[in-house]
Structures are given as C-alpha cells and as structure tokens.
Design goal:
- This protein is α/β, with parallel strands linked by helices.
- It has 17 helices and eight strands.
- Strand 6, helix 9 (about 170-180) and strand 7 (about 190) form a beta-alpha-beta unit.
- The longest helix has 18 residues, at about 245-265.
- It is globular, with a radius of gyration of 22 Å.
- The model is unreliable at about 305-315 (pLDDT under 50).
C-alpha cells in the first residue's frame, strides 16, 4: 500500500493555492523523511478568470524548487480534464518533464472515454498516468458507468476512486472495488473526503479491498470538510510496523493546526448534511467562508433547497441625489459601530 499526500493540492481550496515559502519547505522536507510514495504539488492549470496561486499553475521554477526539497519521493500533479477540450495537453505538460512523475486527471464519470484519449497521449510523454474518477457516490446512477471503464484499458496506469462528497460508507467500498476489477486489472487508489467522519474507515476498507494507493493530507486540510489525515493514517501504519518520524511529523502538524484556526477546515453539520445528500462542496464552502450565514441558516438552506435554488433580490433603485451608505457584514462593523453611527447622524 502506498500513500499519496495531496496537502498542497487539496488544501489549496482554502488558501487559493498560495502557501508561505517556509511552510512549503518544511512540508516537503518532512515528506522526504516519511513513508510517503507520492507528493502531489497542486494543479497544472490554464489561466483562470480569478486569481489562483502558485500551486494552481506550478511554474517551472516552483517544480524545480520542490524537486530539490523532496528528496527521492515521486512528485504528482493534478489536471482538470475538463480544461483540456480546447487546449494542447502536450504543450501544457511538457514543462513538467523531468520534475513530475505522475499526472492525475480529475475525471467526471461521463467523461471516461475522453480521459482515455487524453491519457494515451500523456502516457506517451513518459509520465505515469492516473484517472481520478470523481463523484463516487453517484456512479450507480450513471448508465453503464462500470462498463465504460473498459476504455481505460492500456491507457492509464492507475484508477483512483474519488469520494468527492464524502458520502460513501465502508460497506459500499468493497462492492465498488469488485465492480471495477471486473473490467480493469490496473492498480486502484482511493481519495476520501471526511464529511461524515468516514475518511479513515473508508480508506482502511479500500486498502483491505485491494486498493494500492490511499490519499491523505496533513491535518486533513482539503476541500469542504477535508480529507483523511496523513498523521492519523501514519499512526495506524506505525502500529503495523511501519517506521514513522513522529518528531518531524508533529512539528509540521503544529504548523497546519495554526492555519486551521484561520481557515476552519474540518467537519461541521452543514458538511455532514451535504455529504449524506451528495451536495456540492463548493457551495457550502462559499457560505461558510463569507460569514454572512449562521450555521443554522446554512442547515435550513440545505434542508429546504438542497442548493438548487438561489434567492434573487430585485435591484435597488435610488435617486442619484440621495446619499447612501452601504454597510457590509464583516467584523469591522462591530469594531467601528460608534464611528459609523456618528457618520450617519
């Protein structure tokens, strides 16, 4: 069994893929001393409308620096398959040659055939190629999904099962692995999210069912409720006679705990409800981070709208002759309320 740590990639959903340089150095140096097979640096992405950070684009200088720090560990990057429909994948990934070992494609269940086509090209460039097939809890609702996996034969080296919503239960894992093995003989991996606190249990079940690769992140940092904690999984493996440098690991974990106080990843009732109902993590994260909704309000929205409806307010029309002050909902309003009232009066 091999571990892929994707702290910088999945954790980037909270930090916009920017991390302090000293933290990255400490993280990579620690990874070099732990029983980790792959370290996933982030995304290799096309330019986006909004700003995203260093580990969303991974310029050559960043890959070179990371390669020097991570010792003999293998490096991986993620590519959103959906971004590749109108661009040259060879041009996008050629700068990765010599630095990156594994290319993982984020694949929607309905795009398996396209994943096979692109993967074949990228594999010919000398990379190990994996298809990370998302939305695992919904696979059974996609017609002929498992049969469609046949197109990946000989095109990819590894297939990852991705529980994007953190909605899968352990008793489902073995059945899903068995279905995949009916059509594919390549190694399998598992990437779990922790919405209903089952990332650890699901990862253990995946490993016992025959998955050779397990994803994890330091302190579980990751989209929505987060992922399997690397430190937890290593503690379990240490019990199975796997050597772990807990001194180095604990120092790194402490750094991420400080970040967690600011960004607030981890389980909560909204993520639990969204997990059980396979609802999008992005929408929950947006509501939680803006702080303009209470937890009870978010829960009410989830129960009654399931994120399928949005409240649309009519535009506010006012005369240009009127004086208007717009007050937001941030912490500074409380801090400066006296000054605001003085200004209004």
């Amino acid at each position: 069994m091999k571990i892929l740590d994707c702290t910088l990639r999945d954790g980037g959903y909270y930090t916009h893929w920017d991390f302090e340089e000293k933290l990255v150095e400490k993280y990579l140096q620690t990874m070099s001393m732990l029983p980790i097979e792959y370290v996933e640096l982030g995304y290799r992405s096309i330019p986006k409308e909004r700003y995203e950070g260093e580990f969303c684009y991974l310029p050559i200088s960043t890959m070179k620096k990371c390669k020097a720090l991570v010792g003999n560990k293998h490096l991986a990057v993620m590519v959103n398959l959906n971004e590749l429909r109108n661009i040259d994948v060879v041009k996008l990934l050629t700068p990765c040659v010599g630095f990156i070992n594994l290319i993982r494609f984020a694949v929607r269940p309905e795009d398996v055939d396209f994943a096979a086509e692109v993967s074949d090209v990228v594999r010919s460039m000398g990379f190990i190629v994996a298809a990370n097939i998302m939305y695992m809890s919904e696979w059974n609702s996609v017609p002929s999904f498992f049969n469609s996996l046949k197109s990946l034969r000989g095109k990819v080296d590894i297939v990852w099962m991705v529980d994007s919503f953190g909605a899968v239960f352990p008793n489902e894992i073995s059945n899903i692995v068995a279905e995949i093995k009916k059509v594919l003989s390549c190694p399998l991996g598992f990437h779990g999210h922790n919405n209903i606190e089952l990332a650890f249990a699901n990862s253990l079940q995946a490993a016992s069912s025959g998955c050779e690769y397990i994803d994890s992140t330091i302190t579980g940092i990751g989209r929505g409720a987060g992922n399997l904690k690397t430190e937890l999984f290593l503690t379990y493996l240490n019990k199975q006679n796997c050597k772990v440098d807990f001194y180095r690991l604990s120092n790194l974990v402490s750094e991420f705990h400080e970040m967690q106080k600011h960004y607030g990843w981890g389980g909560s009732l909204p993520y639990m409800i969204s997990g059980v109902n396979s609802l999008p993590q992005k929408d929950i994260m947006e509501m939680m981070s803006k702080r303009r909704y209470s937890v009870s309000s978010i829960v009410d929205i989830l129960q009654h709208s399931s994120l399928k409806r949005e409240t649309v307010f009519s535009p506010w029309n006012y005369s240009l002759n009127e004086k208007v002050i717009l007050i937001g909902g941030g912490e500074s309003i409380t801090k400066h309320k006296s000054a605001v009232l003085d200004f209004i009066i």
